[in-house]
Design a protein that fits this description.
The radius of gyration is 19 Å and the shape is globular. The chain is α/β, with parallel strands linked by helices. It has an eight-stranded parallel beta sheet. A two-stranded antiparallel sheet has the order 1-2. The chain has a single domain, classed as TIM Barrel.
Amino acid sequence: MIENVLKTGRRTFLVRACAGAAALGAKPAETAYSPQTLPTIRLGSREITRLISGGNPIGGWAHSTQNMSRHMLEYFTMERTVDYLEQITRAGINTWQCDHIPKVIGALRTARERGIRLNFICLHAERPNEAPLKTVMTDLSPIAIVHHGGVTDRLFAEGKKQQVRDFVKKVHDQGVPAGVSSHCPTNIQRIADEGWENDLFMSCLYYVNRPRQEQEALLGKVTVGEPFFESDPIEMTRVIRQIDKPCLGFKILAAGRLCANQQTVEKAFKFAFENIKPIDAVIVGMYPRFEDEIGFNVAYTRKYGATT
C-alpha cells in the first residue's frame, strides 16, 4: 500500500478514489467510509481510528512562522475544509480533533448534513473568550472534550492545577468523556499519580512550551521560538506507556519539522506506534496542498498501527 501511494500523485490518488466510488453508484463520501479500514481503539462508547485528523493546519496554527500560518488559512477556506473532511473519511479516518471556532463549527455541520459520519474531539478550556461547554455541545456534539494543553501547562506552572481538574468535572457534567492535554510529561505523570477523574490524555511528543529557565538549565541558552528537542518523544512516550488510560499522541511530526521527505515521516509514525500503548492513538495535522499527505499517513497507520 505504501509503495503504491508513494508512486501515485495526489491528483491521481483522488481521481481513482472518486472513480471507484462512482463505479459503486453512490457519492464518494457515502461509500468509502468504513471504520474498519484503519486500526481502531475504544474511547468511551466509541470506536475511533488510531489515526485522528488534527486541526492545526485548518486553524492556521503552524507552530513555525506567521507566513506559514497565513498560507494554511488561505488554503483552508470553508469549502476546502469540508472537502478535506470528505477526503479523510473516504480514506478511513473517522475522527477529527480541533477547537471550537466558527470555521470548524460550519464545516462540521455541513459535512454532517452531507451524510459524513465523523467523530469530533474538542480542545477547549472555557477561557473568557471561549464559549461555555453547553454551547460547545450544541455546536459540535463532541465525543470528548479535552482541556487545552497550553492552558494546562500554564495553570500548573502558576500553582492552579485545580482549575484543570475542575474543568474535567464540568465536562463530565455534560455527559461526555473528559481529557487533559499537556506538552509536559511531568504534568501528565502527576495527574496520573494523583488519580484524576479524566478519561484520556492528549500527550504532545514535544515539550514545545518548555520554560526558558528549564532551557537554560539544560543548555545554558534559549531557543528562538518553540523548542523541539530530539529526545522529547522518548521522554513523553515513556510516560504514556506507564499510564493505563488512552493517550492521544500529537505533534508526532514535530509540527512539520520531520516532513522533509516520506522516509522521515514514515520513521516518525513507526516510532510513535511502537512506543505508545495498543489503546492509544495519534493525532496528525495534514496539509494536502502539495502531496497526498492523507494517503501517506493512512498507509503508515495501517502498516505500524495494527494492534493484533
